[in-house]
């Protein structure tokens, strides 16, 4: 699995996140058919995994957590929608 930085393709999303939330840093990645949105604010980190074609797999969630949260030893909260097409990971700093 590879995380590919596609932030430049989502300029409107990044601009919207920076202007309407307290986020100070936004990155968008592609993990095959799964989109990964990483947002960081002064007090928290949020990661959203989204796949419109199929359910987000456990190995994708684990891979993203290991790659994007490797410098944070604190626990995280996982929120899963009923269909498992959208997963959110939240970490308090």
Properties at a glance:
alpha+beta; 23% helix
Into which percentage range does the β-strand content fall?
A: 35-45%
Order of helices and strands: EHEEEHEE
Low-confidence stretches: none
Arrangement of strands in the largest sheet: 1-2-3-4-6-5
Report the sheet with the most strands, covering strand number, pairing sense and barrel closure. 6 strands, antiparallel
Question: Quick check: average pLDDT?
Answer: 93
| Alpha-beta content class | alpha+beta
Shape category = globular
Q: Estimate the helix proportion, in percent.
A: 10-25%
Per DSSP, the total helix count is 2
User: Compute the gyration radius: what is it?
Assistant: 13 Å
Please explain how this structure is put together:
It contains two helices and six strands, in the order βαβββαββ. The chain is an alpha+beta fold and 93 residues long. Strands 1-2-3-4-6-5 form a six-stranded antiparallel β-sheet, with helices on both faces. It is globular, with a radius of gyration of 13 Å.
List the helices and strands and how they pair.
Layout: E1 4-5, H1 11-20, E2 25-31, E3 34-40, E4 44-50, H2 58-68, E5 77-80, E6 86-92
Antiparallel strand pairs: 1-2, 2-3, 3-4, 4-6, 5-6
Quick synopsis:
The chain is an alpha+beta fold and 93 residues long. It contains two helices and six strands, in the order βαβββαββ. The chain has a six-stranded antiparallel β-sheet with strand order 1-2-3-4-6-5, sandwiched between helices.
């Amino acid at each position: 699995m590879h995380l590919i930085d596609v932030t430049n393709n989502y300029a409107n999303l990044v601009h919207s996140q920076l202007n309407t939330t307290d986020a100070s840093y936004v990155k968008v990645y592609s993990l095959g058919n799964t989109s990964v949105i990483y947002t960081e604010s002064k007090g928290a980190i949020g990661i959203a995994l989204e796949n419109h074609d199929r359910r987000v797999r456990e190995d994708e969630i684990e891979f993203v957590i290991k790659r994007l949260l490797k410098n944070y030893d604190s626990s995280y909260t996982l929120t899963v929608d009923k269909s498992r097409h959208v997963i959110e990971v939240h970490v308090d700093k």
